[in-house]
DNA sequence: ACCTGAACACCGTTCAAGT
DNA sequence: ACCTGAACACCGTTCAAGT
């Protein structure tokens, strides 16, 4: 049956729901996941919400704030363990691994983290945990404070580097295949270097290009935590 | 006296010398130093050389290559000590400090280093030194290889963060003053956090915001080198 | 108060045309 | 071979005008 004349549609079904900051940030994260951080432009996010870029400025002060909001939204995915002072070294590592996992699940969001002082609630939650568990483990306050900094920087930097391998190569093959062709390119280049000027690099090509990113990450993490532990009282 | 007719000017004084890759990179570094990495655009570099952006593409494949060439040119400024295996831990630190010094002398060039596998001769020279001195100091190859990575990442990340404080604030006051107002802003924010949710952050505000960048950097560096040393044979 | 279209002042890169 | 002007397909942000 056709609708009788003079009858308005029941609710006008507003397919374009009103803009909210939360909706904007959610859309931005969708674009991030699909197209990487460089794909997250004000225009692209607006398009995702069927509007123009100027409309976003009523809910977000600009690109920088949007970046920070995206990061904190993503940081909510980080799961923290039950604090156990006996295992503080292992727990510090666990959290670092978990943050890395979440950063890597969202393209190159780590770039934002690296360029920011943490202020969002979800980021602070992580810092609070690390400070708490290190303090309980006997790391003095000054050392613990600087240690969260160093740990955060390390996780961020490693994630940025790793994300880059994925993007620099074409979007063709599988991520692992991409990483492999990338690494073997580097290996060939290092092997072809003049041996008299770079004897150690040439001799250590295999070690320099060894390990998936996981082993490399674990090694740096282990180094950091050993160093932090050397500041703890027994 | 006027110049007689039919006489060409002595040498035509080519005020716009022909473009070379070296000249382009030098101009790019000048822009970098004066206006930061974001100021280095193909257009701006071309302008510096009295030409248009399209002219650069005959000597440089694009923006990425220009960035890498800039970094390697700047890396030439890094001075390496005479290798002394007895003092390998101190020398590894010295080089890290020196790289940090040079990166910070050139705005936020560290961002390029972080997003790159080192291939330029001057960058490789630094890596070669670190590998050599650690090997001589008794660090096994696998550990030394991963250690250069971690050290590089740490220096780069610290320099990126530090460069950011300078840029985010206005260009008004002195760098130290900028850093100070920036840090005290952070301190106020942390102090105002709800104490029940973030007890350690609130309690450790002073430690978290303490120290000029130098002490913080030294601490992270010390942690890393202690960790590396724990892998060395005695 | 929120949303919008149009504009401003930029980007990196390409390409046909010149020398 | 090198250089150029003009154009293409983008940016972030502002602002007057609408509802």
Your description of this structure?
The structure is a homodimer of 234-residue chains. Chain A is an all-alpha fold and 234 residues long. Helix content of chain A is 62%, strand content 0%. The first copy, chain A, has 11 helices and no strands. The longest helix of chain A has 28 residues, at 141-168. The structure holds a DNA duplex (19 and 19 nucleotides).
Layout: helices, strands, pairs:
The structure is a homodimer of 234-residue chains.
Chain A: H1 21-35, H2 42-48, H3 63-75, H4 88-105, H5 110-114, H6 121-136, H7 141-168, H8 175-191, H9 199-203, H10 205-208, H11 213-229
Chain A binds a DNA duplex (19 and 19 nucleotides) through loops.
Biggest sheet of chain A, open or closed, and with what strands and sense? Answer: none
Approximately how much beta-strand content do the residues of chain A carry? under 5%
The most extensive contact between chains is: A-B, 56 and 56 residues
**CATH homolog superfamily of the domain at 85-169 and 213-229 in chain A:** Tetracycline Repressor, domain 2
Q: Could you name the ranges of chain A where pLDDT drops below 50 across 5 or more consecutive residues? A: 6-15
Report how far apart the termini of chain A are. 82 Å
CATH class of the domain at 85-169 and 213-229 in chain A: Mainly Alpha
The CATH topology of the domain at 85-169 and 213-229 in chain A is Tetracycline Repressor, domain 2
Compute the number of helices of chain A.
Answer: 11
